Amino acid sequence: MALKALDIYKILPKKNCKECGFPTCLAFAMKIASGKADPATCPYLDEETRQKLGAATRPPIRLVRIGVGPRKVVVGEETVLFRHDKTFYHPPGLMVEIPDTWSPGQVKVVAAQIENEMFTRVGQDLFLSGVAIRNVSGAADTFQKTVAAIEEMVSLPEILISDHPEVLEAGLIECGTYRPLLCAATDANYTSFCRLATKFGCPLTVRAGSVEGLANLTTKCVQEGVEDLVMDPAATTPREFLALSTQIRKAAIERTVPAVGYPVYCDTTTYPDPDAACALGVLKYGSLIVTRPLEYSRKLAFLTLRQNIYTDPQKPIQMAPGLYPVNSPGRESPLLITVNFSLTYFTVLGYLEGAKIPCHLLVVDTEGLSVLTAVAAGKLNETLVRESLKKFGAEEAVSHRTLVLPGYAAPISGRVEEMTGWKVMVGPRDAADLPEFLEKEMG
Amino acid sequence: MTWSGEIDRVHIGATKQEGGTRSRVCTVGGAKNLPFLEGASEMPLIALEICDDTGSWSPIVLAYTGDVTRDAGEWAKKAEKEFGADLVRLHLTSTRKRGFSDVRGVRTTIEAVLQGTGLPLIIEGSNEPSVDSEVFSACGEAAAGERALLGTAEADRYRSVAAAAVAFGHGVIAQSPIDINLAKQLNILLHEIGMPHDRIVIDPFTGALGYGFEYSYSVMERIRTAALKGDTDLAMPMISAAADSLNIKEVREAPQEVRDETAVMWEFCAAFSAAVAGAEIVCVRHPRTLEKLKKGFAHLAGEG
Ligand code: B12
Ligand code: SF4
């Protein structure tokens, strides 16, 4: 368990000399406990205390960075077993496998697609994270050529997969400065893998089939000077993966086995049912998920699942409330009301833009609740509509006095009309029907 | 992980010996741990959803399933024989029409479905308070002795469905809008009017993937962990149906050649994840989703 401020205070030197930058040892202890100060800044700690504090105050799961630049994958630093306990912070990297036996043409197509293909949902850009280049050929030069071809074309985070250090080294000649993840060191070969990781400054995957095995191996790698580690529990079935990844997450966040405080690796290509394995990896603590190339439907579904699981359960993704012009409206264009839940806003916007209908969209502050939820909770009401009309200058923006409410807000339409003095029209429930409605009703 | 609580067992369906006509009985519940971990319950069951008025049913499913969708009995038969469902969930969508009065038709449909399949049945009655009482008692009676699961009880309309379940020996689905406290309250209300705990299945309401699914996933995890920690008012099996999956934009507007695949992946992701969060029964509409889930669950349950 993490140490509390008082426990930390007890083992501090209690000189109150302020050299750490805090007025008292106690103030310093409180900052350490909340993770906002580094114990090492007190010059009077003996080695034992320093280590004790270091272990207790560093995040239970190490943050590991793979790749460089805007697309780099950052995983780890998770703090809970269930998302409802707080949130999950770092979405897993979805890494697409590219075997080095593929033709250059095939490599090109797949790599380019991963780099370029993007989906926008709820105002967020979703894409696959990177590539996992696998040495299937067994030959170092073939591997090196594939890595070189990919390097030449895209700047995606990479995993280099081979059991042979000399093969990996050949690949590292091409991409060693871009922080690829090496995969995977075992008990038998970890010293040579650690040497490579140190030489190129890369993160390293370790592989062992149990919590104890992984803990042993990470401890040895840390002794060799490699701290950016990822763990492959080497499960043979999704069931085993779930059991191990759950044990690992629990042991890490409760700090019962601090040596497994690293992100978890999940190679779905090794399971008989890769789709189930991929979903499971996203749900249950996978941080790097290797998959075969995914076609449209799978890609979109898994990216959406990842987006769902990694949103903060305490605060829905929200839009700033306000009056938004859509398709360059004029003063006669219709005025529509919607809520500031991002999903709602972007859904409605999508249909309006698709139909090229000029209008004003007044986004009212329902604290991120959807229309139906906000109506059920009483948050979308006549007072809110009236205040929003005033606050965001709707009266000046349009020459008319007609507003369109979402179909699900029908129960409040009468009261809105009374309180605002505007004529109220109730639109359809489904925004997909909005263009047709506007054409018919508003001409 | 070790916990103090255990999930109640609920039986659905009754064989001849038990006074019904089903060829098998489904048992859900019994878990002493989180799903698929040591001590968890059996494999999750998969219900194929069918209906008696296809007006609002997904055209993707109708096109794939074919002409049998015009006859609920035949559809149910196919669900068992061809698609391999564990249960059939019949939605009496005909009762949702304005001015509905054909209660006799409801009985006929249920009889046809019972004829068509030997699988245990989930029956979804009306969702209009003014006809609830009539419809639910017709459902209860038409399936008397079959130990079906009747749906859906909600906080402000649970009496009719519970009365029918109590009178004819069925279980009920208790639905609450993604809220652990409301789920608990409803179970208590149902218990007070005579529903034993082992005849209640919790439906915490499932939003479609990308459309509220994250909330449903978490509320299921919360309900399950509360139950395992010993809250007996939440210690019932859960059922999940991301019913909107096939109506969402991503599926409706998917390119023609991948529309079926998108529908299947969307249903699959929500149903599979719901099972991982604790649902013992997951409901889907596309026959291919069912096949895919079976495979996924088998691997997770360690059977292949
Ligand atoms: C996720 C969810 C939640 C989440 C909140 C998510 C959020 N940020 O809003 C949580 C778990 C917090 C929640 C809570 C509650 N919920 Co809720 N929730 C849902 C769920 C599953 C999905 C909502 C959603 O995201 N919809 C998607 C968005 C895009 O839909 P939308 O905003 O309505 O927008 C659409 C249309 O309205 C239209 N539209 C939008 N703007 C405009 C504008 C114009 C001009 C037009 C014409 C159209 C239009 O286009 C959009 C796309 O078609 C729904 C069920 C459902 N399928 O809707 C239940 C649901 C809305 N919830 C419900 C309820 C009762 C509640 C609670 C009151 C329960 C409670 N705890 O007491 C609370 C209230 C919240 C509170 N703070 O008190 C009920 C409402 C019942 C009713 N008919 O009134 C529902 C229907 C579930 C149910 N069947 O029981 N909920
Ligand atoms: S530097 Fe160390 S001894 Fe001095 S006040 Fe800070 S914690 Fe106390």
Describe the structure.
- The complex is a heterodimer of chains A (443) and B (304).
- Chain A is α/β, with parallel strands linked by helices and 443 residues long.
- Chain A is built from 17 helices and 17 strands.
- In chain A, the strands form 4 sheets. In chain A, strands 10-9-8-7-6-3-12-11 form an 8-stranded parallel β-sheet.
- In chain A, helix 7 (190-200) links the parallel strand 8 and strand 9.
- In chain A, helix 4 (104-116) packs across helix 5, helix 5 (140-153) runs parallel beside helix 6 (165-175) and helix 10 packs parallel to helix 11 (296-309).
- The termini of chain A are far apart.
- Chain B is α/β, with parallel strands linked by helices.
- Chain B contains 10 helices and 10 strands.
- An 8-stranded parallel β-sheet of chain B has the order 8-7-6-5-4-3-10-9, covered by helices on one side. A two-stranded antiparallel sheet of chain B has the order 1-2.
- In chain B, helix 6 links the parallel strand 7 (171-175) and strand 8 (200-203).
- Chain B is globular.
- Classes of the chains: A alpha/beta (443), B alpha/beta (304).
- Cobalamin sits between chains A (316, 336-339, 341, 343-344, 347-348, 368-373, 375-377, 404, 406-408, 427-431, 434) and B (177-179, 182, 205, 207, 211-212, 215, 244).
